[in-house]
Structure formats: structure tokens, C-alpha cells
């Protein structure tokens, strides 16, 4: 059991957890003279943390390639640099003048690294007392074999020689044969190597490509979402083109959101496919996809806000609120764009926890403000429709308000679950299901969009009912439903009907302004 009362142990595990959370998500991890950090009696540098699936059975027979079924961590051009003052303390003839160790371990085996003597301070590096108790070698990390595989954790040694300023690690390929969350750290126990820096790169590969295990399911998810948006667009655009003469402004906005959603899901797929093939995230594609996503989120929220205010259905314009709506939209786009770029373009560990918090807070505050504004406006619109006895529009807005309420409740519940999920899994051991956290928000947004498409579907009477005031229940049931659904054929602006009463034939005629009935008796 871990001694949680030990300050050094708490510091060590806090550093490991932070390294897991903010480590690079790119499967090719590049180090550009990254400095080592002092942790306890050692100096550490996080090399990465990724979920890797076990190599498939076909990997032993398959030819090397992207989808060869092999899973590995490969070290390339890893070079350690020490200060000139430290190098000058040694002669050129000395053989080993400084040890650096790379160790790879599963998150479940994290307690197999380090130890403590007589219940005292826990250390990563072996001390004289621990050498007697643990049987470790002084000046090296303390490693205990994993219960599942005695060869793990894997430790790779690199030595400085003579008075050289640098030491180069031999190229290594570590095969992964068990599914798990793997972590790489570089450590030195030599206090004289304070100020050590490292350059080079490591490649992390899953059986089906370089995409990290926790992100791999999202590539297929975006394919399904793109297909869903495609089907929605086919249904929507068929109605849109059929009744294009009677389209409302709100329906134009819905069309734009559908198009942006389809583009966003497609771009996400291509971004992940490129990531999976090359092991790096293309800055250009990633920037484009997060920008399209930020535009879509902004327009979606403004659309819901405008609908809640009654724009396009209850009143033709927003009046003096237009400038305020545009201002909140521009501010939200900027906050969302900055947050998405920081989280997706490049690597996650490019920003610290505090820096990310500074970007998350404005986005969360604006979302909360928009939700409050939306429900306030929606309440006023419902009261207005109820006072005017606009039964059809009132029914639509009640359904819309119920859908919004369910969406907000689901969002709050999911946020609480996300907080619980991350709080109870600091080392990402449940990485195989982490993709659901991201996917849920796209599914929820799509579901709400489908509801709006149903409630405001293009019809032949959209314009006729958009800005008119209903009085009581004067409208025929068929006409009332035409606000959201078009008739199967024909134009209802001019309808002739015949009815026979005994030997009498009555012809009813309707035009756009009023209904006139004339009876002709024969």
C-alpha cells in the first residue's frame, strides 16, 4: 500500500498524474532539449503516455506496414546534454561519468517504481539503506517486476563517457504484447546532472496505426456522424428545394448549421486519418477543423437564442437586440476558437493547467450566460403566444422548450459524470472508454438539431404563417399542421372543393386573403 501521508510520495504521484494528463497526444513525440525536473531524489522528464492495444496474432507473419498488427514504442535519435561545468569535472579517459535511465511501465504497475526504507521517505532512486533492504543498485531507479510479466517495467540505460557534453541512446524498439496505458519517463539519479536536457523523438504505434488508443475509436465515430449528417441533409434539402419559395430565415440558418456539421465531421475524420497514418497532427487541417467547429457552435447557439426570441416565426426582426446578439456571438466564437486551438493544434502539454483553465473559464461562463438568456427569452415568447391564442405556434414552442430543457439537464448530468470520470481515473486507466466523453457532445448537438429540423421543416405555408397572428381556433386542422409539414401535393393558396348535399353541388373557393363560399343550386 502507498503511504499517502508521505510528502515525497504525494509529490511523486502528483507529478506522474500531471505528466499523464498533459502529455502529448501525438504518437510521434518530439523532444527539443526538454529539461529534466527535480522530483524527490531524482530528476525526471516525461516522455509520453498513451493507451496501446496488444499486438494482433497476425503481427508475426505480416509484412511491416501501417496496419501490420504490430504495437511498439521506438526510440530514435535520443540525445542527452549536460552542462559544460559538469563535463569538465571528468577526464577524457573515464568510462562512465553519468547514468540516465528510460523506464516504460503500465499505469497499473506505477507502484512498482520507487521504495522507502523503514517507512520513511519514499524515493525513486536507490539509496544506501534501500540497497540493503530492496536489493537495488545504488544510483539507479528502484524497479520491482510486474506481477503479470517479470520483464516489465522495461529499463534502458544510457551512459555519459569521459568529458563529453552529450550521450546518445542506442536505437531501441520495445514491442507491446499486452493492452494497457503505457508511460515513458527518463530519469537520472546523479545530482551532478542537474540541468540535464534531452532531444530526439519516440514513436508509439498501435496495431492499426499511430493514432493513440484513446483517440482511435473517434475516427470511426466521425464516419458515422458524417453519414448521419449526410442523411439529415438529404431529407432537409429535399424539402428545402421543394418549398424554396416559402423558406423562412430561420430555415436558412438551420441549413447552414447542417452544412457546417457535415463539413466538420468530414474534416475531423480526415484529420484523424492523417494522424493515424503519419503519427503527427497536421496543423493546417487541425486549424481548419477547429475553426469550422467554432463557427458551427457559435451559429448553433445564436440560432437557438434567436428562435427563443421568436425571430422568423413570431416577429420578423430582433430590433434593438441585433447588436447585442452579434456581440455575444463574436465573443463566444473567439473564446471557443482559442480553447479548441489550444487543445487540438499541436500537443496538449504545450499549455500548462493554469493556462488551460484561463481558456476554459470564459467559454464556460459564456455558455452559462447564453443558457440563461435563451430560457428568459423563451419564457417571454411563450407568454406572448399564449396571450394571442396562437395555438399552432404555441404548440411548436412548447415542444422546443421541452427539448431544450432535456438538453440542458443531459448536459449538466454529463458534465458531472465527466468530472467524476476524470477525478476517479487520474492515470487514464479507463482510456478505452474515454472517447465517449467527447462523442456525447456531438451526439447531443445532432439530436437537438434534428428536433429543430422536425419542428421547423420547410412547408408550402411557412411564409404564410410566419408573421401572422392566429386568433382562437379559426384555422382548419389541416392548415394548422401545414406550419411544420407540407401537404403531399398542390398549393393550398387556392383550393376548390365540391360537396354534394342532396341534389345540390356546392363549390368552395379559398384564396390567400380570405375564404369565400358560394352555393349554386341546380
Automatic annotation (TrEMBL):
Keywords: Membrane, Signal, Transmembrane, Transmembrane helix. The chain crosses the membrane at residues 221-238, 250-270, 357-379, 400-421, 433-457. It is a multi-pass membrane protein. Residues 1-19 form the signal peptide. One of its GO terms (cellular component) is membrane. It is found in: Membrane. The keyword Hydrolase does not apply. This is GOST seven transmembrane domain-containing protein. It comes from Stephania japonica.
Amino acid at each position: 500500500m502507498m503511504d499517502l501521508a508521505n510528502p515525497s510520495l504525494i509529490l511523486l504521484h502528483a507529478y506522474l498524474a500531471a505528466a499523464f494528463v498533459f502529455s502529448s497526444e501525438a504518437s510521434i513525440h518530439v523532444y527539443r532539449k526538454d529539461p529534466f525536473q527535480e522530483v524527490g531524489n531524482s530528476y525526471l522528464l516525461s516522455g509520453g503516455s498513451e493507451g496501446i492495444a496488444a499486438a494482433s496474432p497476425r503481427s508475426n507473419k505480416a509484412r511491416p506496414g501501417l496496419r501490420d498488427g504490430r504495437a511498439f514504442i521506438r526510440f530514435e535519435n535520443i540525445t542527452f546534454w549536460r552542462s559544460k561545468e559538469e563535463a569538465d569535472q571528468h577526464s577524457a579517459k573515464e568510462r562512465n561519468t553519468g547514468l540516465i535511465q528510460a523506464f516504460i511501465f503500465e499505469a497499473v504497475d506505477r507502484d512498482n517504481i520507487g521504495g522507502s526504507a523503514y517507512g520513511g521517505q519514499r524515493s525513486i532512486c536507490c539509496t544506501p539503506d534501500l540497497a540493503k533492504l530492496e536489493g537495488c543498485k545504488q544510483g539507479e531507479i528502484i524497479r520491482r517486476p510486474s506481477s503479470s510479466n517479470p520483464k516489465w517495467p522495461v529499463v534502458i540505460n544510457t551512459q555519459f563517457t569521459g568529458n563529453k557534453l552529450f550521450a546518445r541512446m542506442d536505437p531501441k524498439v520495445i514491442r507491446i504484447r499486452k493492452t494497457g496505458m503505457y508511460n515513458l519517463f527518463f530519469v537520472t539519479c546523479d545530482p551532478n546532472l542537474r540541468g540535464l536536457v534531452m532531444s530526439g523523438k519516440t514513436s508509439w504505434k498501435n496495431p492499426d496505426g499511430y493514432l493513440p488508443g484513446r483517440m482511435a475509436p473517434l475516427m470511426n465515430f466521425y464516419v458515422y456522424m458524417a453519414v448521419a449528417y449526410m442523411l439529415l441533409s438529404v431529407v432537409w434539402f429535399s424539402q428545402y428545394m421543394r418549398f424554396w419559395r416559402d423558406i423562412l430565415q430561420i430555415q436558412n440558418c438551420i441549413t447552414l448549421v447542417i452544412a457546417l456539421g457535415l463539413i466538420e465531421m468530414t474534416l475531423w475524420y480526415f484529420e484523424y486519418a492523417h494522424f493515424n497514418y503519419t503519427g503527427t497532427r497536421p496543423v493546417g487541417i487541425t486549424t481548419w477543423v477547429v475553426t469550422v467547429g467554432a463557427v458551427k457552435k457559435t451559429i448553433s447557439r445564436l440560432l437557438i437564442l434567436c428562435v427563443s426570441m421568436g425571430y422568423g416565426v413570431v416577429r420578423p426582426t430582433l430590433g434593438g437586440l441585433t447588436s447585442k446578439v452579434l456581440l455575444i456571438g463574436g465573443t463566444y466564437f473567439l473564446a471557443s476558437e482559442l480553447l479548441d486551438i489550444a487543445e487540438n493544434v499541436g500537443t496538449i502539454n504545450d499549455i500548462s493547467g493554469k493556462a488551460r483553465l484561463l481558456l476554459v473559464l470564459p467559454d464556460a461562463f459564456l455558455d452559462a450566460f447564453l443558457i440563461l438568456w435563451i430560457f428568459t427569452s423563451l419564457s417571454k415568447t411563450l407568454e406572448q403566444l399564449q396571450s394571442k391564442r396562437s395555438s399552432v405556434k404555441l404548440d411548436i414552442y412548447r415542444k422546443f422548450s421541452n427539448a431544450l430543457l432535456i438538453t440542458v439537464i443531459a448536459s449538466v448530468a454529463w458534465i458531472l459524470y465527466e468530472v467524476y470520470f476524470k477525478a476517479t481515473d487520474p492515470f487514464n486507466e479507463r482510456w478505452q472508454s474515454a472517447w465517449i466523453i467527447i462523442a456525447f457532445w456531438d451526439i447531443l448537438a445532432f439530436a437537438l438539431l434534428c428536433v429543430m429540423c422536425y419542428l421547423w421543416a420547410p412547408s408550402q405555408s411557412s411564409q404564410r404563417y410566419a408573421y401572422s397572428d392566429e386568433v382562437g381556433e379559426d384555422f382548419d386542422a389541416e392548415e394548422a399542421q401545414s406550419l411544420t409539414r407540407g401537404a403531399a401535393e398542390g398549393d393550398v393558396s387556392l383550393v376548390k372543393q365540391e360537396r354534394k348535399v342532396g341534389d345540390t353541388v356546392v363549390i368552395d373557393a379559398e384564396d390567400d386573403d380570405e375564404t369565400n363560399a358560394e352555393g349554386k343550386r341546380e
